[in-house]
Amino acid sequence: MIGEFEIYGVYFPSLLLMMTLAFGITALLRVLLAHIGFYRLVWHRSLMNFALYVIVLGALTALTHGWR
After folding, report:
1. Is residue 68 part of a domain?
2. Is there a domain that residue 19 lies in?
3. Residue 9: phi, psi to the nearest 5?
4. What is the pLDDT of residue 49?
5. Most buried of 10, 33, 35, 46, CB within 10 angstroms?
6. What is the per-residue pLDDT for 1?
7. Residue range of the domain that includes 37
8. Which DSSP category does 39 fall into?
9. DSSP secondary-structure letter at 11?
């Protein structure tokens, strides 16, 4: 994982980029899960969405761990 990235002289932590990307991926997955009717099987939809976000963020972090 790279330490930080720079946009016009302003440095941002790489986790911010990963969190934004994870949010977009999670939003797409939520639409897909709602379309196939998965949420009928889930007890608490908000907790499921949060857990899905954490899983996607963890996967992105693990995938970019060795990047420099």
Report:
1. no
2. yes
3. 85, 0
4. 96
5. 33
6. 46
7. 4-63
8. G
9. E
Cβ-contact 23, 56 below 8 angstroms: no
* Residues shown for the chain: 68
Q: Which residue spans within 1-68 are E strands per DSSP?
A: 4-7, 10-13
Q: What are 9-36's pLDDT values in tens digits?
A: 898 888 898 999 999 999 999 999 999 9
Determine the Cα–Cα distance for residues 4 and 13; give it in Å rounded to an integer: 4
Give which of 6, 30, 29, 8 is closest to 16, Cα–Cα: 6
Q: What is the number of structural domains in the chain?
A: 1
Contact 29, 56 (CB under 8 A): yes
Q: Is residue 34 part of a domain?
A: yes
**In-domain check, residue 59:** yes
What pLDDT digit, counting tens, does each position of 4-13 carry? 878 898 988 8
